[in-house]
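Practice problem: predict the structure.
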Amino acid sequence: AVRHFMRYCFDIHLSEGFSNTETGAGSLVRDNVIQRPNVIDYKLDDVPELGYFKTDKPYPRGELLFKTKYQVKGYLHAPEATAALTDAEGYIRSGDIVEEREPDYLVVIDRRKDVLKLSQGEYVAVGPLGTFFESGSAIIHQIYVYGNSMRSYVLAVVVPDEEAAKSALGEGYSEAELKTLLRAEMQRVAQENDLKAFEVPRDFVIETEPFSQANGLLSSVRKRLRPALKVKYGPQLEAIYEEHEQASKQQYEALKDPDSNLSTLEKLVKLTEITLGLESVDADKSLTFNELGGDSLGAVTYSLSIEDVFGVSLGADVILSPTGSVGKWAREIEERLDDSFIKPTFASIHGEGETVLRADALELEKFLGAETMAGATQAEPVVDDEKTVLVTGGNGFLGHYVVLQWMERLAPKGGKVVALIRAKDNDSARKRLNAIFTESDPELKSHYEALAANHLEVIAGDIGESLLGLSGDAFAKLAGEVDRIVHVGALVNHRLAYEHLFGPNVAGTAEIIRLAVTERKKSIDFVSTEATLRFTAASPGESNETALPLDDVPVQDERYAGGYATSKWAGEILVRKAHLQFGLPVNVLRGNMMLAHQSYRGEINYADTFTRILYSIAITGLAPRSFYVADSEGNPQYDSYDGSPVNVVAAAVVSAANFKHNEFRSFNIHNYHQADGCHFDAFVNWIESAGYAITRIDNYREWLERIEAKLKSLPEDARQHSALEIMGSFATQRGGEGSIEPASDNFRQLVKASTVGPDIPHLDEKFIHKCMQDIAERYGI
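Answer:
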């Protein structure tokens, strides 16, 4: 389809060819013709397990092997990969199955390995996938999983076990009943084996004749002969694809028809099925977007489709909410279609299609309304004796320690923490918070449960919704009880743009301000990020800890986590305006990398960059000679790693309450020690002293190539835990790039007044050993 479009649109000759890295230079095949003189020789190799032979008629078929002028001799320090690269005569194995139409004229028809790439870039190992279904279900006797790279889902041919089907359905069952049973079996097997939604055949053909050697569909060792299966069933399966595509197009266009008789919910169900490639969606089951098989990038596509069909914007943050569902999204769409809808959106605050975010557009009245603004000026002042503290984001890595330490602080005076957790109801919210404290260290679990019994209330809410997702009465009751708000909660997604983080991180902050000015004024501790420092402007001689935010910033910040940083810039502006307009005491605490707890076992952020690189170095046994650029004499120019243990960060957040003031204060929370020997090269030494064998590689680029190759070869689970996806952070050696150095005068005062004081800890060998122990217990390395 792409090739046809390019040729038709630009009226050009479009050549198609292929080569590979191991040939060094030059192409192998162009427009199906072997490219000489680069290719010295080629041959075909029989692939009996797939039914491909050089003796096939009318054309020889087999795996393409070749020799070229510049080909490599093997892979560095990888004897197994080198052995698999070539045959005994030195011909490189391509892995491609070709058909030789005439000498030097080849057509690629298959791959030797049964892995296919779907249109969205996902890889599916169809052979093992078939084995999952056959071994996991008595009903599925045999299955042939089929797909192609222009489709986002797979299909199948299923041979049911007749006796098992009769046992389940009884005599005289219909084909429709059998298909329903088989589909249910596939879903059960998929759930039991944690298969992705795109790995489950969306539709299938029922075949009554088993695959066998006699009908040419199984090899002599009873393996599926994919070529023969494709020849027999391919046209039928491709016809199903076409039928689905045409039906989806027609359904999508019908959804946009203003005269449609479908309700909003019915339209959204159809749109969800089309977008996610699902056979059916049951709106009564209240499944989240992730449970339906979507991810954060899919949420963006879904958001755009909703805007196209309904004409209203529903951000990815709403779609990705753990309390979200098709029914809930349908209700929100109807609210936004109502002319009286006033909930702030990106478009209503900044303007449709705006490319520059202006601080003066973030007016509190646009978020809070005139009535709340008027009431805020009459609200009672802040109380001195704070006994009830609201914490948002309490089930997050930092948030659950903030909850714990606030309970420790309030317990002696009979106070309590109110934790606002995104969940369907209060019981689910409590269970969700409990799970965070009970999954690792028994000592932590015991300490939490003892405090929570008398000093914790958990309520279900959502900072991304009006009134924090509470009823009017519940919101008013909360506003009357709470003395202080610690706003840790946010949608932390480093892939989403500002527009899709606007709801929870900007409008959500405004709802926190609404709570802070209702009934009584309350202090706000707002947890931000040091990434906002690039959006501040310090006067000459002024600290960037106290510098004012810029008046405008671009909507699209292409840097890593740019959308998240921008949403926190907007949040800082809102709380600053709340201070200026209503006199709210505000502490902004800009967090940095939050590392493992210093003592509790298993309390480490397994998804962060720090943990991933420690794990990757340990599991591969590879490290560079130095992570740092060298000076003219060859000495590494070390910095000091500025992350801090999570318990230190939490103590700093809680200790902000020690400063009784009516001001706006900001703190850059980072490990401010300099030249203390805590850097990545030292971390490697300490990984080694923890018992891991490490090979140091002199050339940094070579280390990158070797560790990436090793990480790619890991099993899927291990690869997901590794640093493979974030190796861009280590693309060059550290030092000399002139990054912003956070000021820390206010933070140092905060540390002295906290339970951490008089100083924050250094990241020493003992701490790294603790991190490695956590990683080893979690991943079994």
